[in-house]
Write a structure and sequence with these properties.
Length: about 775
């Protein structure tokens, strides 16, 4: 039993209040065909909307199932509309972008009925209204009468107890009207049908009860309910819930009707994604290239341990960067100056390279260290016959890296091409190192007694050429308290005591190593230096120098009361050949992985030692690569920030487009609400739409980026000869799709909320 008690309803627009219903009292039987007659504006539609739970009354009470609807929550009203009520409208109110079948199914879709059950039920009711053959058509492919049949089928589909029809034949011709009325009469057999009409003929012919209304009041009722009539009740109100998948399908169908716009929107909002994805791909690619470069080349640069070492740890770097920043402490208004340590002093660390340290690194695993090269102050006394005359040769020779194990490849064998001859092994053997262009400085050529005026010098002329090395005892002669160099160089040249050093090979750093690491020169073996030191440390000049307070060659006095003075004396002693630890050690890691292990090994030495006793090493590769990757990171961040702006712009754009979509779909919102959709379901429909756009713009962005990378990589290949530099990391791709999804969902959230708050009655009235 449905009962309206003192129902009042008025509408206020501005200052004007229109009373639509004044104290309506009506009772309806569970099964009857009621026609409501009345002129336009008399409140018929308002009454129907209130009975259908689409509109709320101002006061009074509507009683359903003996329940006072005053206490109904939104949810209950939605459920009531969904499974107790079937609406039939004058203007059919079908959703235009989905099929007849889907329209009829919509009520069931909203209440979460399984699709197989939905289909069979929808087909059954479509058969009943005679439209089974048309079920796959869209509403606009049908005639008015057919559309109203679809609306009737839709009203019947959920098996409601009450059918509310608002001028169902108002838009139809007489003949079709009759057919529709017949259909409604048929339905009315086992339901309560309340039909609004202003055609008294139709009302009298078909209805079992005619109620007349005027100015919001009931003025007559042909068959009111008598006191004696029994109360019947059993309307069932089941909760409704639309699944996100259904919302998605509905939106997908809607989107299909505006393909062009959706594609353009997706494309526009994918631009930000394309920007970020390409930047990430490029920077990724460059990082990888730097990494490969580092592995191949930089890692082969030696780790350097020098008595004076720049302490470029992170702290120092940060301090250095801070020192160039302007702070509050700058430009003080003071009349004094503040002394501070020099940059050099702040950042240099004095390494005290001890015998122990040398022993420690010589014990390093030959699997990780391919060689050690020592730099000492020790002077080699060299002479040679140049242009027919014996002369002193003043060149700097380096020590070729020493091999830590005879079973393993040496640095020379590993990293150099041996152009001719072989590696130097014995103490009287030298190698000539040429640079990447086979250039050698002229002083080196002339020191070998070769003609420097020639354009080029054949390998065979260099191979086996000689330099003579003289030991201190022959090289220096004592005059009083001082020493000077023996003047009879010819005698020294021909003496048996003189050691003849011979070039046994010419080598060049392999092509894959960076050019800045290449320099030319002569290199001797560590064996030679060991021998020279062992001979010279006991020479007269070294002994004399040890006891002297001045330089025995120049006469310059040392101030032995200072550290500097002592150090200068030690350097002079080392120069003359006294045993001394090297001032610099170059440690060659075998490869990239070995370098890490080597650094660990070197760090281990420092464990537990005081700062002043620690040995700080310089990793040239690290400095170069961290510089380049820092720059890369900075560029990447700036570019990503720019692209992110376009992402935000696109999410605002999505908001606007969704808002337009809400306006366009207002009618649909009303229809869905009349079929029992909850507010939540409505926002779901729109969120589903943004979900689709966000997803497709993300995926589109990734696909376009992948395609753009093809020409980008080929341009980069032409420029840099690096293959496939730009690579999109799949994890980045997934993250970007998610970001795109989230941003569009945020952009669409407000319009979706607006949609869900729309008044269903007003929504239905919009065209
Ligand atoms: P009927 O269906 O009998 O033609 P209605 O129920 O639609 O009449 O309207 C009854 C009265 O209420 C009319 O005067 C109409 O202008 C007014 N009315 C209906 N809906 C609204 C509304 N949403 N806002 C303002 N006035 C309304
Ligand atoms: Mg009306």
């Amino acid at each position: 039993m449905l009962e309206l008690k003192n129902i009042k309803k008025s509408y206020t627009t501005g200052d004007f209040t229109q009373v639509a219903l004044k104290e309506i009292n009506l009772k309806f039987r569970k099964n009857e065909f009621v026609a409501i007659l009345g002129p336009s504006g008399s409140g018929k539609t308002t009454l129907l909307n209130i009975v259908g739970g689409l509109d709320r009354y101002d006061s009074g009470n509507l009683i359903i199932n003996n329940q006072e609807t005053i206490k109904f929550k939104d949810q209950t009203w939605d459920a009531y509309r969904n499974n107790c009520i079937g609406f039939i409208f004058q203007s059919y109110n079908l959703i235009s972008h989905i099929s007849i079948l889907a329209n009829v199914e919509m009520g069931m879709t909203l209440s979460g009925v399984k699709s197989s059950k939905r289909h069979s039920k929808a087909k059954e009711v479509l058969k009943k209204v005679g439209l089974k053959d048309h079920m796959h058509k869209k509403p606009n492919q049908l005639s008015g009468g057919q559309m109203q049949r679809v609306a009737i089928a839709r009203a019947l589909a959920n098996d409601p107890d009450i059918i509310l029809a608002d001028e169902p034949t108002g838009a139809l011709d007489t003949k079709t009207s009759v057919q529709i009325m017949e259909l409604i009469k048929e339905i009315a057999k086992d339901k309560l049908v309340i039909m609004v009409t202003h055609n008294p003929e139709l009302a009298k012919t078909y209805a079992s009860r005619v109620i007349e209304m005027r100015d919001g009041e009931v003025i007559s009722d042909s068959n009111p309910i008598k006191q004696s009539e029994k109360d019947e009740k059993d309307y069932k109100i089941k909760r409704t819930s639309m699944s996100f998948l259904s919302a998605l399908k509905l939106s997908l169908n809607n989107i299909k009707t505006k393909k062009g716009r959706t594609i353009l929107t997706s494309f526009a909002s994918s631009i930000g994604i394309i920007g970020i994805a390409s930047i990430l791909s490029l920077s990724n690619g460059f990082d990888r290239q730097i990494d490969i470069f580092e592995r191949n080349t930089l890692s082969s640069l030696p780790i350097i341990v020098s008595t004076q070492s720049l302490n470029l740890d992170e702290e120092a770097m940060a301090e250095m960067q801070n020192s160039v920043k302007t702070t509050d402490e700058d430009y003080p208004n003071i009349d004094f100056v503040i002394p501070e340590k020099s940059m050099e002093e702040t950042f240099t660390h004095k390494n005290n390279i001890t015998e122990d340290y040398i022993k420690y690194i010589e014990k390093a695993n030959p699997d990780i260290v391919s060689g050690l090269a020592y730099n000492r102050y020790t002077r080699l006394n060299l002479i040679n016959k140049i242009d027919g005359k014996v002369k002193i040769v003043n060149i700097n020779m380096g020590s070729a890296p020493k091999n830590l194990s005879n079973d393993k490849l040496s640095v020379i064998a590993e990293k150099y091409d041996i152009l001719t001859g072989r590696e130097a092994k014995e103490k009287d053997e030298l190698i000539l190192i040429v640079d990447s262009k086979n250039h050698v400085t002229e002083d080196i050529i002339s020191s070998l007694g070769l003609d420097t005026t020639k354009e080029n010098i054949k390998f065979e002329d260099i191979l086996n050429s000689e330099i003579k090395l003289v030991l201190n005892k022959d090289y220096y002669t004592k005059i009083g308290n001082y020493f000077s160099i023996n003047t009879d160089l010819d005698k020294l040249y021909n003496s048996d005591e003189t050691i003849t050093l011979k070039i046994v090979g010419i080598v060049r750093l392999k092509e894959e190593f960076p050019s800045y690491a290449q320099s030319s020169g002569l290199a001797y073996t560590e064996k030679l230096l060991d021998y020279v030191i062992s001979e010279n440390k006991n020479s007269d000049i070294v002994k004399a120098q040890k006891n002297a307070k001045h330089n025995v060659l120049t006469g310059e006095a040392f101030d032995l009361t200072t550290e500097e003075g002592k150090e200068t004396k030690n350097q002079v002693l080392a120069y003359l050949g006294d045993e001394a630890v090297p001032y610099m050690v170059q440690i060659f890691p075998r490869d990239f992985n070995a370098k890490d292990e080597l650094l660990k090994y070197l760090d281990k030495y420092n464990e537990g030692k005081e700062a002043k006793d620690q040995i700080v090493y310089t990793d040239q590769a690290e400095i170069i690569s961290s510089l380049s990757s820092n720059i890369m990171d900075a560029i990447t961040i700036v570019l990503i920030a720019f692209s992110a702006i376009s992402l935000i712009v696109s999410s605002i754009m999505i908001g606007i487009i969704m808002y337009i979509s809400v306006l366009e779909r207002t009618k649909e919102i009303g229809i869905l609400r009349s079929l029992g959709a909850r507010k939540k379901d409505i926002s779901r429909v729109f969120n589903a739409e943004t979900f689709i756009i966000g997803m497709s713009s993300g995926i589109l962005g990734i696909i376009i980026t992948r395609l753009l990378l093809i020409p980008a990589n080929s341009i980069l290949y032409n420029l840099t000869e690096l293959k496939n530099v730009a690579v999109l990391n799949p994890i980045h791709a997934i993250i970007l799709i998610i970001v795109s999804l989230c941003l569009t969902l945020i952009g669409g959230a407000i319009p979706a909320k607006i949609a869900s708050k729309k008044d269903p009655v007003i929504a239905l009235r919009t065209e």
